Amino acid sequence: MRVARLLAFVALLGMLVAGCGSGTNITNGSGLQGSYSGAYRIVEGSAIEEGSLTVVIGPDGALSGVMLDNATAGSRTLTGTVRDDRRFHGTLFHPSDTYSLEGNLTMVDPKRVVGVLARTSSTGVPAGTFSIDCTAN
Length: 137
Hints:
Elements: H1 2-18, E1 34-44, E2 47-57, E3 62-69, E4 75-82, E5 87-94, E6 97-109, E7 112-120, E8 126-136
Antiparallel strand pairs: 1-2, 1-8, 2-3, 3-4, 4-5, 5-6, 6-7, 7-8
């Protein structure tokens, strides 16, 4: 009986230790690694910008992307990190300013990633939202 309890305790302890992690990258958790393309939308008050977006998420959680504005054909750059809990923190380089982006990404089906991220200006002022809707390539 003692041996059975000891084995059960060791097994439980092993499961608890194996389940702990730092939550700092996507290597083991998010499943979002890969190349995606789709659409983005920036909404700030009544102003709306829409365009196409191509992003790559590496095995270390690094995200890089290129955007093309539908109205002006101007390009924008997106960089950042996706944690294993799918939390994104990054930077949007836009002709008008450099913005911080923060929010969660969600996989709505096996090949589609969406997210609505808070956008903050370089001076720390809230600047609307940045939304993505991308499909795996």
